């Protein structure tokens, strides 16, 4: 029975890995469908928990959700199968892309395309980061009107943000991990 | 040290200390792979992210596969990919049964809140550097601003925007080349 479940997991997660474009969070709609097809695996409620909890341990979110969901379905073996199946299609595609890139590395067409893609990527990263900024610095639950925007600013977070920003500009040699650890410590000390 | 082992270990470290999505990994990747080891250039890293976000799969893992392949072929890609997921998978597997309690613990929540502020700050620095490196002239600046506006306001699919930017890049480069040719 375990083998059948694992094979199902592999198949479901392989499809997710093949079709979910745009990072770990893009896998969530696929998992919602999965919960519908396999009610004995996990419920939508549990899925929401996987997502929330996956941010509290290190690693890419998509991988963490898959590990947790796999564990719920079939224990440690389930985790390994789900993560493997999620990564496999992307891995194969990336290897093909990498080989093509190597081949056309010196083609002016590829270089010209990347001339346009690079600023677009920066913009996409910036747009993702901007939404993180608002989440971190403003208490969105407290925003009911434009007027309340000022009071909804998380003052302690803004101060911590400014301090770490300044510190990382001054102590350029320090590893980013140091600042993240400092953030964690400040979070505990000031009960953010 | 063996390059395969180095790839695995470097990515294991990156995977173990990154909280949140692929973008939170960027400052750490830049430090570990660009500044410290000199394995790839910053432009390479951005190109990998560009490809990683418009292909299926988890962005951070895709970027790891690409960089691993660039350094040491298919086996290098395996080492980097396994490395980046290794610690996260082990951690969750070992504490899965108590993970719910762990994440609801008040100190863990405070620590995570502080960490997300710190990550936002160090990403801010990285993004500013990225802007300087990628928006190098008027056309690239216009492409960047247009994509930013489109993604913030309309939330268009990433793939669509990346492909359009690629086409714009090719068209602009050709116009530039023609102008240069015309001046001769």
Question: What can you tell me about this protein's structure?
Answer:
The complex is a heterodimer of chains A (192) and B (184). With 192 residues, chain A is an all-alpha fold. Chain A folds into two domains: 2-103; 108-189, no CATH class. In chain A, 74% of the residues lie in helices and 0% in strands. Chain A is built from seven helices and no strands. With 184 residues, chain B is mostly helical. In chain B, helix 1 packs across helix 2 (22-36). At the A-B interface, helix 1, helix 3, helix 4, helix 5 and helix 6 of A face helix 1, helix 2, helix 3, helix 4 and helix 5 of B.
Architecture blueprint of SSEs:
The complex is a heterodimer of chains A (192) and B (184).
Chain A: H1 2-19, H2 28-37, H3 44-54, H4 61-103, H5 108-137, H6 155-170, H7 176-189
Chain B: H1 3-17, H2 22-36, H3 42-53, H4 59-95, H5 99-104, H6 106-134, H7 138-154, H8 158-183
